[in-house]
Predict the structure.
Amino acid sequence: MRILAIESSAKSASCALLRDGELEAANYQNVGLTHSQTLMPMIESMMKNAGRTMADVDIVAASHGPGSFTGVRIGVSTALGLAAGADKPSMGVSTLEAMSRLTAHTGALTLCAMDARRSEVYAAMFLDGERLCDDCAVPASEFAARAAETAKKLGKSVICLGDGAELCYNQIKDSGVEARLAPPHLLRQSAVGVAMLAADRLSAGENVPPPPLRPVYLRASQAERMKKEREQNQN
């Protein structure tokens, strides 16, 4: 089973090839360019350097959110296009859960948090690869307090991941719970985590065939919120 994985839900973009649990190739960029400029060239370069084509791929996986509305749409549409063009199935996984997959070995309570602006985060907690709560969009301070309380009950330290990790980290640390930021190579979203999570799901017999790949948004877009505010002000 070879999985082509795509991650573009935040500022960075990445892709990976995983075969039977072994990482064959990966490509990562966080250079400030838009994903519409970088994602397909990254995938094409990775496939060429690995000596693979879409005929060698069994399934295309992508992080389907939460995250940047534009980034999620680009990643999902790219995965759908590649899968359809090669007549391959596609599947989506939670951005936050895919992040947690890379630190499941630490034994710590894993807090995955993405900056959702307005002092809010998209966040979820995991322990030993098991989900402890649903993905949610909440104030960072509220989720940090919830994580600190959970860590105390479980007697665990906390490892914080994601571009919203620092919004939660200091508050958790100040609560008396042992907390740390993930090392730089694990801190941001990664297609490697997407591939590993997809492989776990497929090995467990879940989502076979996978449900349709669609973006998953936890709140309305900024444009939708501004429109609603204008309508309320007019009334």
